[in-house]
Amino acid sequence: MTDVTRFDAWLRADGPAALVLREYLMPVEGRDGVFFPATFAASEDGSFKGGYNIDEFGDGTNVCLVDSVGSQANRIEPLFAEPPLRGLVPQVVIVAGERRVNLLEAGHRAGDAIVRCSSLQQELRDAFLSVRTGNAEPLASVAPTSIVFGAWDSRDTQVKLPRLLASTIRAFNVRRLTRSAQYVPALDYVAEGLVEKSEDKKAEKALAERGFVHVPSSGAHGGVMADGDIRRDATLHLAALRTLGASSEERRQALQRYVLGLALVAFTQQPGTYLRQGCNLVLDPDRPRELTAVFGDGRRETLSLTPEDALEYAKAAAAAFGLNPDREVGAAGGPDREVPFDREAAKTDVGGGAEGGRRGRRKNG
After folding, report:
1. 339 φ, ψ (degrees, to nearest 5)
2. Of 120, 103, 118, which Cα lies nearest the Cα of 340?
3. How far apart are CA 232 and CA 67, in angstroms?
4. Distance of CA 286 to the CA centre of its chain
5. SS3 for 350?
6. Residues of the chain with pLDDT under 50
7. Residue 335: is the preceding peptide bond cis (ω within 30°)?
8. What is the DSSP string of 105-121?
């Protein structure tokens, strides 16, 4: 098994401030292919009209956000629920009616409502409060990816953990396209006397929505073409990871190695290429990924680290932390759990949520 001390130099105070990964992407159709970035709702103050998030600069250049930090995290984190990564973390599943939701899929991670309204509530509340006092070990024992990808217990303790790993996809110097379409019904329902034409706008809208009349669509978002790079930039903040504490110096070292192992696995994984309809981005075969260690004095060192190397180290670090990465997931007596969603807790949470949240903030500072 891989030496668990292999990356200890990165955990020392004089180690790198961060690891930086850069990957160059291209649409499956080719570098000049059209792809569809994420769209966003308009801002409440009207400063952003909604649609693609493209920042324009005075010199005519622009930067388009293709996939946000949060979206990238939501693509990477669930990989820990599947082989070969699932043995690296406790598999915690909340059973809510007919649904089974893995904690790795919860949008707010350990601070999500589905967790807060389950039998894990007190355990995770105590774990968040323990983080505040300098001990992240209890949280790592239940929800370690909440440390890697960040979490905010905004409805209770207000404890916030920064993202150790952040990944974003941006495209540079894009040109917007528009598209138009015309929906043509299978037959002319009005002319055939099968439905009645109405002068009432609400009734006409209903006919259009249900597919009984022609519906034109003009000038809609048609994707973009990138004249510059399409880049995935990921940063693993080692300086932040080194601040994690535990119950003793020995456990602190084991904790930091474990979290580093998980972060390196997430850092080196290639997320799915299919981001959304019309946006399937693959690695540019002519431009290899760049992995760099960046130090506090500005020095930059080129690194070589494969996903296989990261996984082997993560397994060794998990075992040293006390988690068997090769266990039969879900076996009795292990760290994996199924817990029920508590309907009564949800009612209480909703009924007194606002005031309860204010009390929690006053109590917990």
Report:
1. -130, 150
2. 118
3. 9
4. 28
5. helix
6. 354-365
7. no
8. G-TTGGGSHHHHTBTTH
3-state class percentages of the chain: helix first, strand second, coil last, to nearest 5:
35, 25, 40
Q: At what angle do helices 307-321 and 249-268 cross, to 10 degrees?
A: 150
Using DSSP's 3-state secondary structure scheme, residue 180 falls into: strand
CA distance 312 to 51: 42
Strand partners for 234? 21, 167
Please state, in angstroms and rounded to a whole number, the distance separating the CA atoms of residues 314 and 299: 26
Please give the angle made by the CA atoms of 131, 134 and 136, to the nearest 5 degrees: 45
Calpha distance 349→355 (Å, rounded): 10
User: Which two tokens mark 15?
Assistant: 């180690």
Please, is 19 exposed, middle or buried when counting C-beta atoms within 10 Å of its C-beta (0-12, 13-18, 19+)? buried
- Could you report the per-residue pLDDT of 236-285, keeping only the tens digit for each? 999 999 999 999 999 999 999 999 999 999 999 888 899 999 999 999 99
| The model scores a pTM over 0.90 | no
